[in-house]
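Whiteboard transcription, Tuesday session. T.W. wrote the structure tokens on the left side:
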């Protein structure tokens, strides 16, 4: 997400950073480019106008012109304003003091509501809640089945019946109370377009169960359409937050950057893939850093903590200190990374990997399978001492793994690069690294 914008902004700021002093016209020129970059990213034009004028007022202030590092100062201003634009601080979901809490997910057809219900159920169960999924989309039988499949995969209970949606929702809250479930997540029906019957049904459900959270699920790939849809839902039904899906496919980020400013409602979650763990909490400051190509170390560390085996991580750290990182470790790393989700979504969070690096590094998760096959075809000695893998060994490995010598070469090249990168990385103290990274705020 945001790759295109990140590349452009990095380019603009690189020029500024290179200069010792900045004049008012340098700044104005740069901001013109920023404006264009935002418009090209499909950000709402009114939002862009307001944004640029905010940045300009601050940037042309004495502070920047007098500063010894004017380029840095401007990046800081843009970073702060981007954070503001995205909503300043994360807004958490509300929970009722008297359980069950009800989340009601609404949105157009195919926006990702059912998937989002599954993601939220999974996430909040991990946080110690007891969710009940509710199938209130009764118009398509397949819709109920889809939620049933997700519920089964997650081993989370589901409530469904042949009644009308309002009655289903009422009954589900009753059931949750009886069964000691403290979180009811309602999957509502989608429509192709916003129409009166849909709005009426949603309003009736709202009246019947008074949800703590009405969350609009909107498809980021639809850009400004998503923003307009959100505006209408907010006016007609009232929203508490937004779950922006398919951000993994949206390189521009226009919806994410406009939706808060246009609707006044916060983005709370971002969907970054079809799998149920492809969910990110939305933190405006972290996203702003990511857009500016500065990575998002905090989310990365959190994600790692959530999924990575700490024992394994400690072992790895020791190895790194002794500089004995082998292909076996590389393989173990791959398994850990697989647990964390798609490689792309992880790489995006690493500082400096945001824009150009990501463009050149499109990683196909299927390629991972090939990598596994190649490593599996190596002998123990080869995995421990990859430098012994010469031409004839490469041929044998390619044959054994059903790949080609090019694939083996490529993998070894990547491995040696990673070995080198990790060596450098392990010399850095992560805490210090984070501090330095965020210190200009
Ligand atoms: N790449 C990607 N695909 C997603 C994401 N969220 C959902 N999808 C996919 O989008 C499609 C539609 O998702 P659903 O959850 O069925 O959408 P829905 O809003 O429930 O659709 P209706 O019930 O027909 O209104 C499915 O193929 C999902 O796998 C996401 O964050 N990223
Ligand atoms: Mg659905």
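and on the right, the sequence the group agreed on:
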């Amino acid at each position: 997400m945001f790759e295109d914008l990140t590349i452009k902004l990095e380019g603009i700021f690189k020029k500024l950073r290179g200069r010792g002093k900045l004049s008012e016209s340098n700044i104005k020129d740069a901001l013109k480019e920023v404006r264009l970059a935002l418009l090209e990213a499909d950000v709402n034009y009114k939002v862009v106008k307001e944004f640029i004028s905010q940045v300009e007022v601050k940037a042309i202030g004495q502070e920047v012109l007098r500063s010894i590092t004017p380029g840095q100062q401007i990046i800081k201003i843009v970073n702060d304003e981007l954070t503001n634009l995205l909503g300043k601080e994360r807004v958490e979901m509300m929970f009722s003091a008297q359980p069950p809490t009800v989340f009601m997910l609404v949105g157009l057809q195919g926006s990702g509501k059912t998937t989002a219900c599954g993601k939220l159920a999974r996430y909040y169960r991990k946080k110690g809640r007891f969710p009940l999924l509710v199938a209130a989309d009764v118009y398509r039988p397949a819709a109920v089945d889809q939620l049933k499949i997700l519920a089964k995969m997650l081993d989370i209970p589901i409530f469904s019946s042949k009644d009308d949606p309002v009655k289903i929702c009422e009954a589900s809250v009753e059931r949750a109370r009886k069964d000691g479930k403290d979180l009811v997540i309602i999957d509502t029906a989608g429509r192709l377009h916003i129409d009166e019957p849909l709005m009426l049904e949603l309003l009736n459900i709202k009246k019947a169960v008074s949800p703590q959270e009405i969350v609009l699920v909107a498809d980021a790939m639809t850009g400004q359409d998503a923003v307009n849809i959100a505006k209408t839902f907010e006016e007609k039904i009232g929203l508490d937050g937004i779950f922006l899906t398919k951000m993994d496919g949206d390189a521009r980020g226009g919806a994410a950057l406009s939706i808060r400013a246009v609707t006044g409602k916060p983005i709370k979650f971002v969907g970054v893939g079809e799998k149920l763990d492809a969910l990110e909490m939305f933190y405006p400051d972290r996203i702003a850093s990511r857009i500016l190509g500065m990575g998002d170390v905090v989310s990365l560390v959190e994600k790692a903590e959530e999924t990575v085996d700490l024992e394994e991580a400690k072992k790895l750290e020791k190895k790194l200190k002794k500089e004995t990182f082998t292909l076996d470790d590389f393989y173990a790393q791959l398994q850990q990374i697989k647990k964390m989700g798609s490689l792309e979504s992880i790489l995006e969070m690493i500082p400096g990997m945001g824009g150009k690096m990501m463009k050149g590094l499109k990683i196909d998760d299927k390629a991972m399978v090939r990598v596994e096959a190649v490593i599996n075809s190596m002998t123990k000695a080869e995995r421990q001492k990859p430098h012994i893998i010469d031409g004839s060994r490469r041929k044998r490995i390619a044959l054994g793994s059903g790949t080609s010598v090019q694939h083996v070469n490529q993998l070894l090249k990547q491995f040696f690069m990673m070995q080198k990168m990790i060596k450098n990385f392990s010399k850095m103290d992560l805490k210090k690294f984070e501090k330095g990274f965020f210190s200009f705020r």
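Someone added at the bottom: Residues 405-427 form the longest helix (23 residues).
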